[in-house]
């Protein structure tokens, strides 16, 4: 452990260098914002100070202070409305690098050298493996850059924003009264969240589901509940704003895929914490410091993967049964119903139910939460019931809505093929 900590000392010097960069950047380049001018200098001084503090391995809190400064550097150009793209890019890039060199890179060697089988007990694969995390990180980058593109327009760095599908839809959405109600750029706030999500995906080695439970749970909280909230808000844009936004929808569907790919690792971590607690170990000690997993009869050391196997292993734990594909299609149809169905102009039920149906159908492709598809039964009943209480339906839309509601209920019955095993969680997959 001590040897690894000594090897990671170079990352502390990088933080000091980044602090010096922040100090001298505003002195070198003209900035119109005096607030950001002093913010950069102050943050630079703090990074230099705590970077040197972090050289002492007893100061375990110092790297976390540096990471907090890195997060602040992501937020500051939004709060103070950075006047130019150079300032925004400099602060967000330096902030990301500070997070990487303060808490992401240090400790990786220790994590990789930890003894123990990386495959959870009763599981057929390792949900923390790099092939499993690679598509999640890639999707996080797509969300990050899409949000940053929209934020660049809101902050005044771009004179035009391109929407390849909905003409000026993106422009209408990001300049709407809903968007302007935020005191800062809402797209920039999204870019900040996706930055943290993407970087957290790199934290820890292939055994982090039991060596770093806190990191997996934190990553899961960022991706799942926070992601679901933003997804549903994005999909309800026709109600809130009256327009569709291509980049927002792209972000939403990437987030749905991220959720489906993330839940297995979170489930493995929760399963490990439950088993550890039942064995008499302290929950919080295990949560923060990790522990030893139960032995798995499958020896991961003898498993070898070819190129094709590595590609297929990226989507282990995820399948697309025909019934869930059709359920998602029903949800998407309802989302865009105003464009090609004869629903009344004031009807909002199809949009709301369509957003929920699409969300549940896509995240249910994850085998470990396949039972979530039963929630669509309730939504199917709500879809049918909406025809009784709302008067805006035409005869055609009435028949289509009832038909889709009945079809949605029937499509929830088949479970679909389950290709992997999940230990004690198998009996929850109905």
UniProtKB/TrEMBL annotation:
<protein>
    <submittedName>
        <fullName>Uncharacterized protein</fullName>
    </submittedName>
</protein>
<keyword id="KW-0812">Transmembrane</keyword>
<dbReference type="InterPro" id="IPR005530">
    <property type="entry name" value="SPW"/>
</dbReference>
<feature type="transmembrane region" description="Helical">
    <location>
        <begin position="36"/>
        <end position="55"/>
    </location>
</feature>
<feature type="transmembrane region" description="Helical">
    <location>
        <begin position="12"/>
        <end position="29"/>
    </location>
</feature>
<feature type="transmembrane region" description="Helical">
    <location>
        <begin position="349"/>
        <end position="369"/>
    </location>
</feature>
<feature type="transmembrane region" description="Helical">
    <location>
        <begin position="396"/>
        <end position="413"/>
    </location>
</feature>
<dbReference type="Pfam" id="PF03779">
    <property type="entry name" value="SPW"/>
</dbReference>
<feature type="transmembrane region" description="Helical">
    <location>
        <begin position="93"/>
        <end position="110"/>
    </location>
</feature>
<keyword id="KW-0874">Quinone</keyword>
<feature type="transmembrane region" description="Helical">
    <location>
        <begin position="61"/>
        <end position="81"/>
    </location>
</feature>
<comment type="similarity">
    <text>Belongs to the VKOR family.</text>
</comment>
<dbReference type="GO" id="GO:0016491">
    <property type="term" value="F:oxidoreductase activity"/>
</dbReference>
<dbReference type="Pfam" id="PF07884">
    <property type="entry name" value="VKOR"/>
</dbReference>
<keyword id="KW-0676">Redox-active center</keyword>
<feature type="transmembrane region" description="Helical">
    <location>
        <begin position="374"/>
        <end position="390"/>
    </location>
</feature>
<dbReference type="InterPro" id="IPR038354">
    <property type="entry name" value="VKOR_sf"/>
</dbReference>
<feature type="domain" description="SPW repeat-containing integral membrane">
    <location>
        <begin position="322"/>
        <end position="411"/>
    </location>
</feature>
<keyword id="KW-1133">Transmembrane helix</keyword>
<keyword id="KW-0472">Membrane</keyword>
<feature type="transmembrane region" description="Helical">
    <location>
        <begin position="241"/>
        <end position="263"/>
    </location>
</feature>
<dbReference type="GO" id="GO:0048038">
    <property type="term" value="F:quinone binding"/>
</dbReference>
<dbReference type="GO" id="GO:0016020">
    <property type="term" value="C:membrane"/>
</dbReference>
<keyword id="KW-1015">Disulfide bond</keyword>
<dbReference type="InterPro" id="IPR012932">
    <property type="entry name" value="VKOR"/>
</dbReference>
<feature type="transmembrane region" description="Helical">
    <location>
        <begin position="212"/>
        <end position="235"/>
    </location>
</feature>
<feature type="domain" description="Vitamin K epoxide reductase">
    <location>
        <begin position="135"/>
        <end position="262"/>
    </location>
</feature>
<feature type="transmembrane region" description="Helical">
    <location>
        <begin position="320"/>
        <end position="337"/>
    </location>
</feature>
<feature type="domain" description="SPW repeat-containing integral membrane">
    <location>
        <begin position="10"/>
        <end position="102"/>
    </location>
</feature>
<keyword id="KW-0560">Oxidoreductase</keyword>
